[in-house]
Amino acid sequence: MSETVLLNYENDVATVTLNRPEQLNAMNEELLVDLKEKLEEVQRSEAKILIITGNGKAFSAGGDMKMMLQASGPDTFNDVMSKIKDIVLTLYQMPKITISALNGATAGLGLSIALASDYVIAKSDAKVAMNFIGIGLIPDGGGHFFMEQRVGTVKAKQLIWEGKTLSAKEAEQLQLIDLSTDEDLNQVVNGYVHKLKHAPILAMIESKGILNSQQINKLKAILESETNGQLSMRQTEDHQEGVQAFLNKRQPQFAWK
Fold first, then answer.
1. What is the predicted pLDDT for the residue at 67?
2. Quick one: which of 31, 102, 200, 226 is 20 to 30 A from 78 by CA?
3. What sign for the dihedral angle of Cα 233, 152, 212, 107?
4. What is the mean pLDDT of residues 18-41?
């Protein structure tokens, strides 16, 4: 069985690669466990820079639908959400400079996790979407927190409510991501790494720790609110309709229930 998350070190750079390419790196429970373990390993390592990316045509299509359908009971659901919280908090507090390299589609939980990095760089043909609303759910994985930080409260609400798919260029114009590039993504990321290797990176990491530490309690509170809110939304008829519409490839007919 292949690993669902790969970890590679080269000098002071760690690269974490989501590795379910046939499933567009959708995040099932196995991948969440592997990702948590790999991030914790990087956290303990001597690496100064972390790159997180995806194998194949997508960064991540988000939460695996099969996992979401199976996590029907509160205990199973809370266990999955606990793993997501650990991943997000570990990545946000990582004492490294972190880069999310969006090699393709990045949606839902995948986008939440990508936005936890210090820099978010995307191929110009990548698509991003905070699309939980399409199945009657709310963002999780700190999606509310990271979107508010990047685009402000009002725009974050509107993007969450619309759930529309954005081109990388549109996302850059909204300042949801830092850069959309027509050039080779690996070369662009390597350019960032090269600059960081010639910068006073320990001072940068220290500043990151100071700034992020001021926000950590808010992030924890939002993660808890997302867990509670998501559990409530999963009981609604709108969510059941959204799932059935998704599975049957049709437009949902929401009824406010």
1. 79
2. 102
3. positive
4. 96
Please give the torsion angle defined by the CA atoms of residues 68, 69, 73 and 77, in that order, rounded to the nearest 10 degrees: 0
Q: Tell me how far apart the alpha carbons of residues 236 and 175 are, in angstroms, rounded to a whole number.
A: 33
* Helices 143-151 and 153-162, axial angle in degrees (round to 10): 130
Burial class (CB in 10 A: 0-12, 13-18, 19+), 168: buried
Say how far apart CA 227 and CA 222 lie, in whole Å: 9
pLDDT at 157: 98
DSSP characters over 49-67: EEEEEESSSEEE--B-HHH
Report DSSP letters for 132-190, one per residue: GGGGT----TTHHHHHHHHH-HHHHHHHHHH---EEHHHHHHTTSSSEEESS-HHHHHH
Task: Place 14 in a pLDDT band, splitting at 50, 70 and 90.
Answer: very high
Residue 1 carries which DSSP code?
-
Sign of CA dihedral 103, 118, 16, 47: positive
Q: 56 and 89 in contact (C-beta within 8 Å)?
A: no
Nearest-angstrom CA–CA distance, 218 and 223: 9
pTM of the model: 0.95
Q: Which two tokens stand for residue 207?
A: 């500043």
